[in-house]
Design brief:
Distance between the termini: 71 Å
Low-confidence stretches: none
Largest sheet: 3 strands, antiparallel
CATH topology: GIY-YIG endonuclease
Protein name: GIY-YIG domain-containing protein
Number of domains: 1
Strand order of the largest sheet: 2-1-3
CATH superfamily: GIY-YIG endonuclease
CATH architecture: 3-Layer(aba) Sandwich
CATH class: Alpha Beta
Mean pLDDT: 80
Length: 142
Amino acid sequence: MSTKSHEIKVVYNSSNNSNRVSQILPNPKDKFEPQSGKGVCRIPCSCGLVYIGETGRSVSTGISEHERCVRRHRSSKSAVAEHSLQNGHNILIQEAKSLPHSPFFYQRNIREGVEIFKHPNNFNRDEGWSLSPNGIGLNNQV
């Protein structure tokens, strides 16, 4: 069937590569902010050590709580504040990173254990779930 016989005008022509439909329409998916979900974060210190922490709330909330504890000198509630106060170091909150998020408790704890293993120079209070010496399986030390 021809478009001329029905007097229909073609508005979009696919041969024109500069104006594709995908370029004209917005992406329908919501963008995910890495710090908006449950997960693991890495907070560095000016001395080169890092803190690795897991949270069941949003990562941004966990980072904010550590920052607040540093400001208010509450070392009993935060390993980050404890390190800062005991050593006089500056915590680099603006460089804190959210690692891949996970809504699942066991995945977060395994990820935290892997990150602690990858960063042996950390100031965590405990080792959480650590990798076994032979790299197979996990030792639950929580």
